[in-house]
Amino acid sequence: MNELELVKRIAAMAGGGRGLVVGIGDDCAVYRPPRGHDLLFTTDQMIEGVHFRPGMPAQRVGQRALARSLSDIAAMGGIPRLCLVALALPRAKSGRWAEAFYRGLLGLAKRVRTPLAGGDLAHDDKVRCDVTVCGSVERGKALRRDGARPGDLIYVSGALGRRWDRPIRPRLALGRKLVGAATSCIDLSDGISLDLHRLCAASGVAAELDSVPVAKGSTLERALHGGEDYELLFTLPPPARAPRGASRVGRIVRGVPGRVTFRGHALKPRGYDHFRGTDFSR
Ligand SMILES: [Mg+2]
Description:
Helix content: 25-40%
Low-confidence stretches: none
Strand order of the largest sheet: 8-10-7-11-9-12-13
Bound molecules: magnesium ion
Structural class: alpha+beta
Distance between the termini: 36 Å
Radius of gyration: 19 Å
């Protein structure tokens, strides 16, 4: 398939959405935001051999590439509005592989009403894609990681430490519920030990963690330090009841900003760090 044919196929699959005035086919997409909303922007790369194992089915790669960015929109309490996809791939993958990639990505995009509004295709020796998602949230209401206060209770959705390559379900509905209720929120992409440290550092507070929900078949070590969970970690002022499916894992306290303890012992932020290397073993 040549580039033009592939673009035509993608455009036919892309669909439209509310507010999208001009989609694929012009120099830029045109989007008209809802009145009284702030816009959210996030971008995430997926590189073969870095973010996914070579040989991962194309449809799964596409689904995952979009889901990671949607998780960031969920963490800010936003509604995803449109996405842009830049994809580079070897010539051998420009046919069926590319089509399956877009099928995976656009299947999820349709489910969460986030039309593909544009993108770019290029040739490279391995697959690299970059997905940008634009979302929106009521003005001034975005959930941020710098709002946690001493006394707030810490919650996490779902269970932690699952296999890195399981399908991601971005917690968009939960993020929306937390708008106006949570004092801070972050999505768990690099492990709770590192992401909670980030949230506390941004908020100028410390945290006491006393339990974490460990996924079936996983270990406490993985639940604390493994990445790619894509659950939401958030704080609510007391007295708070956990939203459905979420569990309380600790509390925010005064202390050295960013310091986290687990059952009374210092917890080092040991989650995933790109400059330390890739681990596909779990
Ligand atoms: Mg994030």
